[in-house]
Amino acid sequence: MNVDSDHARKALVAFVIERALLKIGKSALDQVSNRLYEEHRCYLGDCYEHPEYLSKVLKDLFGMSHTVTVESIKNELTEFTEHKPIERFLKVISE
């Protein structure tokens, strides 16, 4: 895989996660970002490679309402699912 395209997809995923959380509010973005760092020592961009971290944090913070954020992320990334890492990312956060 091309390293540049992998970095671009990682940045895209981070941007989409941030955007989905900002639709809820800045505090949601801050809470998720802080929890990701506290529990997993990672940032939004790292969720591309570790979607299980994002999934856990969203469920812990928002309970069943996490599905709203997941759906928002899925809607933004649907056109990129031909890339297996993005397809895997979406599958893991949807579980």
Description:
The chain has 95 residues and is mostly helical. The chain has a single domain, classed as Non-ribosomal Peptide Synthetase Peptidyl Carrier Protein, Chain A (Orthogonal Bundle), CATH 1.10.1200. 76% of the residues lie in helices and 0% in strands. The protein has five helices and no strands. α1 crosses α2, α1 crosses α4 and α4 packs antiparallel against α5. The longest helix has 22 residues. The radius of gyration is 12 Å and the shape is globular. The relative contact order is 0.16.
Q: What's the gist of this structure?
A:
With 95 residues, this protein is an all-alpha fold.
Oligomer: single chain
Distance between the termini: 26 Å
- Quickly count the helices: 5
**What's the helix-strand series?**
HHHHH
CATH topology grouping:
Non-ribosomal Peptide Synthetase Peptidyl Carrier Protein, Chain A
Helix fraction? over 70%
The top-level CATH class is Mainly Alpha
Computed over alpha carbons, the radius of gyration is: 12 Å
Largest sheet: none
Structural class of the secondary elements?
mainly alpha
Q: What form results from the Cα inertia axes?
A: globular
In the predicted model, the low-confidence regions spanning at least 5 consecutive residues are: none
- The number of distinct β-strands equals 0
